Description:
Layout: H1 2-30, H2 32-36, H3 40-52, H4 55-59, H5 75-78, H6 81-90, H7 104-115
This protein binds heme C (HEC).
Amino acid sequence: xxxxxxxxxxxxxRFCLRDALLFLGTASIFHPAFADAxxxxxxxxxxxxxxxxxxxxxxxxxxxxxxxxxxxxxxGRRLKPEAISMQIHNGGKVMPAFDNVLTGDQISDLxxxxxxxxxxxxxxxxxxxxxxx
Length: 133
Ligand code: HEC
């Protein structure tokens, strides 16, 4: 009798788990917000690379622009991800190429980070990440 009850419990659990997984899978595939949005992990990795790879040296700590590099506060709105990626891979007239400095994955992370920069004008400061304000 004990074994039977246990088996029923087991089957119930498996059903729930499968349903939960199905639900999660469907939600992440079909939810529009997930379709094209950069993954948060990539954005965070990109932000770290931004500081450690020297980008901030020319473009400012938050991409607000510096003595050498232009503001990138609106770059996610202005440029396609492919164009941002090209710029980092190949550099520009002044900007060095990062092709041999960063891996493809690291450049993808930086692109994900820069895609979040969508200010209406290049000078417009971005709202800081919500910190109880
Ligand atoms: C030596 C200074 C310098 C460094 C370091 C630098 N940039 Fe740049 N960046 C520039 C300049 C200057 C431009 C404008 C194009 C040119 O003249 O090369 C530019 C342009 C860009 C653009 C295109 C902007 C637009 O509106 O077309 C992107 C995107 C960009 N940089 C991203 C990065 C990233 C990401 C890094 C770090 C991996 C980086 N830059 C490091 C100087 C720099």
